[in-house]
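F.,

This is the one I mentioned.
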């Protein structure tokens, strides 16, 4: 179980991809599938470095880097469709799942994700976890993406818990920066290569 900072926490707010769901390797596969049609590559190290960025921004930057004109909406839809096809490969992040199991019904939970509601709902449903969360704040719900604190502050309002009493679980620099800007302490979830492989 991941160690938690000291504090009087009355709500847990979780990023989804790479935090609750060990989905980043699957998202990378989905990107490769979507970009392949245009002969574009998103190397794994760059994919992780860009963790937490909006999908549209990534496509725009890849177009610029590779001199391409990939249609943003089409690539984003194909990436989402590919991700949904790969859902059976998903697993939960063990250290985070342990906290969800331990604190469920003791404190309310929210998901605050830069992914679409469709993607978040599908991921949590695939793992049988959707019913644990009282609130979902997804890409469609916010005008500004992380590191802006909008998503986390919105979740705190919806749960009716003061920001300083919310504990955030995050796996990216952008997410931790968003939590900090919201005045919320956070727990950093290590990336897949820093976690021991789990026997299945």
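My design for it:
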């Amino acid at each position: 179980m991941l160690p938690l900072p000291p504090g009087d926490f009355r709500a847990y707010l979780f990023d989804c991809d790479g935090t609750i769901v060990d989905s980043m390797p699957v998202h990378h596969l989905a990107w490769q599938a979507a970009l392949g049609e245009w002969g574009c590559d998103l190397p794994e190290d760059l994919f992780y470095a860009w963790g937490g960025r909006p999908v549209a921004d990534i496509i725009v930057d890849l177009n610029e880097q590779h001199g391409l004109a990939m249609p943003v909406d089409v690539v984003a839809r194909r990436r989402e469709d590919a991700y949904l096809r790969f859902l059976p490969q998903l697993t939960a992040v063990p250290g985070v799942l342990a906290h969800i199991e331990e604190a469920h019904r003791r404190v309310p939970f929210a998901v605050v994700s830069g992914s679409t509601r469709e993607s978040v709902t599908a991921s949590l449903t695939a793992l049988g976890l959707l019913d644990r969360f009282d609130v979902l704040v997804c890409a469609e719900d916010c005008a500004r993406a992380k590191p802006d604190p909008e998503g986390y502050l919105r979740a705190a309002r919806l749960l009716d818990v003061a920001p300083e009493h919310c504990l955030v679980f995050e796996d990216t620099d952008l997410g931790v920066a968003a939590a900090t800007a919201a005045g919320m302490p956070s727990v950093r979830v290590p990336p897949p290569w820093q976690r021991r492989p789990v026997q299945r």
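The mean pLDDT is 94.

Talk soon.
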